Amino acid sequence: MTTVPFVRGDSAGTARAALFGRLPAPTRRPATETLIDEHHLRLDRYAPAGPATRPPVILIPPLAAPASAFDLRPGCSLLSHLVDRGHPVYLADYGHVDAADRGMGLEDWIDRIIPRAISTAADHGGAPMPVVGWSLGGTMSLLTAAAHPDLPIRSIAAVGTPIDYRRIPALAPARTAARIDGGRVVAGLGRLLGGVPPLGVQMMYRLSAINRELERPLYVLRHADDEAKMRHLAAVDRFMGTMPGYPGRAFDQIWRRLIVANDLNSGTLHLGDRTIDLAAITPPVLAIGSDADAIAPAAAVEAITRVLTGTSVRFERVPGGHLGILTGPTAADTTWRLLDEHLAR
Q: What is the domain-level CATH number for residue 168?
């Protein structure tokens, strides 16, 4: 039987569970009320314990990642941070996505799901919404604001949101192959599977940080007596284990338009005969990126300062990986502080 040396008590049990991937689910903050509960959109409201002293905020998750990214665990929860500071917080959640949703495209989110979430939150909160999107959630928030300039959006924060996909080294082999076959192999596989299944999303996320995965046993043994580190690892593993899939049509659009054609780097997105121009965005924007982020490196994020020509844009670098910049151990002193300043505008 494998044991963790020199560690006793709760830390030993947590470390042993981490080593073998059997970790308990983190505690989630309970919602105050649910405003929408329908197919692919749940909108929960989280209220401060006392009177709201700061404006309401809506959090927009990406596709193929659970909304729990914003509430990873106690002490590493952007949602709790905002609520505790006096913000009423609205959290959008798309629920489970699988092959049955193969016909859903980016338009479903840009034209229907996210506008409905923002409008409902703004009506309920009585004010235009500051929007905070992480990863592709930031992309979809930007595209929604560009496509629907009449939406009640006060500001936008895009955390770990790539614009120039040429600046993502992990995608270089796929982009090179796509130049040879026109992207048909990956697109065809996506159509065959109806998108990317949850297991495929989890594998892609782990492969994006392969060094971390290979070093996991050593990390667990090295920090086995650190209960906080082990519980954070538990929360990250739980998060990755609940990742939903990409619907087929949306994956095809992301692959062809964002990754291969690199549309956003020119400030537009082409969806069939339709063109969405990011220059139409007028609310102020904060963009946050990290050099250590393998999925959305800072250089890929910083391109936003060039393509958003209709509004003010602030770009900031912070430490951490793709999930870490949002809710890792250093996020409170970096990303959350920047968001606090942005939301106070």
A: 3.40.50.1820
